[in-house]
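User: tokens in, sequence out, please.
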């Protein structure tokens, strides 16, 4: 049987380290190399135990996973060119860097581009990926398995959808954090001590998310189930769902995020 292609991870920050941790836990047969100028203690311990090779001289890899910040990419691309050859499968998790840009800078057409989200750092994320036209079904399967440590994986989708994906799931965790913050502040305004209001808001968001995860019903059915006509929840929802309320605000917010993503992609040209 042919050996699994070598795997090079560039950038072992929060997301990159979560990927590598997952590959190691899954006892991947691939030989894993990490390129990272400032390895964390965890990454250094993997290298010391011989589980990964850290910062070797460059040679073309079977698979190259790029997990640096997008603003670092132009500079990093020069440094890592030696790890990419025409046969290298490149998987990027950088926000906003398009397939064409990756292809130009890394000199390969075999590219997949993914948008994870921050819960991926604890394996609870959702990632969507798009793929260059030449990638085979087997390549896409490889991409899916490489991203699996971050959580659920969807794709390949059309690259044109990635700005909307970024606006929804990429930036989405921040919307939920804001919701928890705003609920705590509102509870405080209603007279609750700050610490209790913060705790109640946090546990409510955590518990509601866990209930949604455990339930076969969708969010709309769960919302209806806690809303008795004429009751307290109804009184609040009448405001949240009014014209200009939450659905409208979120539509505007996601549109702004998607527009910003398109602008950032252009600026990176
Ligand atoms: N949708 C989302 O919410 C979301 C969430 C997370 C991540 N992402 C994407 O995932 C990517 C990684 O994010 P992150 O949070 O994991 O970032 P991070 O924690 O900053 O990790 C990036 C790592 O790359 C390292 N690095 C810098 N220059 C390098 C070089 N020349 N060679 C190798 N490594 C280098 C950095 O080292 P230094 O610290 O020394 O610079 C850092 O450890 C980003 O592109 C981001 O857009 C998206």
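Assistant: Sequence out:
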């Amino acid at each position: 049987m042919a050996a699994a292609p070598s795997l090079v991870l560039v950038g072992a920050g929060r997301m990159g380290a979560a990927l590598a941790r997952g590959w190691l836990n899954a006892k991947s047969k691939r030989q894993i190399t990490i390129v990272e100028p400032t390895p964390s203690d965890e990454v250094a311990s993997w290298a010391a135990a011989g589980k990964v090779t850290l910062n070797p001289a460059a040679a073309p890899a079977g698979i190259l996973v790029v997990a640096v910040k997008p603003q670092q990419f132009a500079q990093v691309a020069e440094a890592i060119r030696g790890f990419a050859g025409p046969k290298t499968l490149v998987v990027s998790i950088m926000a906003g860097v398009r397939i064409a840009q990756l292809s130009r800078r890394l000199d390969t057409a075999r590219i997949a581009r993914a948008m994870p989200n921050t819960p991926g750092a604890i394996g609870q994320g959702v990632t969507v990926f798009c793929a260059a036209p030449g990638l085979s079904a087997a390549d896409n399967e490889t991409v899916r398995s490489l991203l699996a440590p971050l959580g659920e994986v969807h794709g390949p989708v059309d690259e044109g959808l990635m700005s909307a994906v970024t606006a929804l799931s990429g930036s989405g965790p921040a919307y939920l954090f804001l919701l928890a913050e705003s609920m705590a502040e509102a509870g405080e305004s209603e007279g609750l001590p700050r610490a209790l209001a913060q705790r109640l808001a946090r546990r409510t968001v955590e518990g509601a998310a866990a209930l949604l995860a455990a339930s076969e019903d969708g969010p709309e059915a769960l919302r209806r189930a806690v809303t008795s006509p004429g009751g307290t929840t109804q009184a609040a929802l009448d405001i949240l769902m009014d014209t200009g309320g939450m659905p409208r605000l979120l539509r505007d917010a996601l549109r702004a995020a998607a527009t910003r993503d398109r602008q950032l992609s252009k600026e990176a040209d």
